Amino acid sequence: MDIKTSYFETQKTARYSTYGKLSDQTKYFWFGLHGSKMQCEQVLYKFKDFDPNEHFVLAPEGLNRLYLDGFGGEVVASWMTKRDRLKEIEDFSNYLTQLYHKYISQLAPNTKKIVFGFSQGGTSLFRWLHHSSIEVDEIIAYSCWIPEDIDLKLSKTPLVDRKMLFTYGIQDQFLTRENIEKVQKVIDNNSLSFTMEPYEGDHRISKDQLLKIFKDYLR
Hints:
Blueprint: E1 16-19, E2 28-33, H1 41-44, E3 55-60, E4 64-69, E5 72-78, H2 85-104, E6 112-118, H3 120-131, E7 138-142, E8 163-169, H4 177-189, E9 193-199, H5 207-218
Parallel strand pairs: 2-3, 2-6, 6-7, 7-8, 8-9
Antiparallel strand pairs: 1-3, 4-5
Helix pairs in contact: 2-3
């Protein structure tokens, strides 16, 4: 059989959720990427103790959707799979860039811009920053792998020599001591500068840890 696979670019409607009221009183703009098999709203629930008048939180949702349990149940999302991965990275990077620029154009001049990604969302965050030039003040990697197959020294958003934060739960079943050592090697190979912030917890976003990061590093 003579089978040929081709590609065709088309529009796709993306979903996202927000918390807070965007105004000239907004001091902190958060842009948070969820992990695999999550919904965007799950990120926002972790900000319930943040003042919605000072914090505006935007959580985009991955373009790939699936059922959480086989053929039914909750509908969740992911950022990429191994099928046509480079195409998916380009698609979600373009999507995130457009959405991000839509909102930062509305920010007051002194609003601090914070991007973070949890788990697969953290890995996708670095692929996005590598792909696109983003105006950002703070970068937080949350319980994620830092991709080793791209040269982050050549990222369109400059990453070398800038201060970033990596936080993870000590009981995270995916980030064992051995895997943290591998992450550190990727960090070193890319000449990146991270503050490592471990805490008591597992592979979930902790609302208490987010609040601690804000008080200790961002405020």
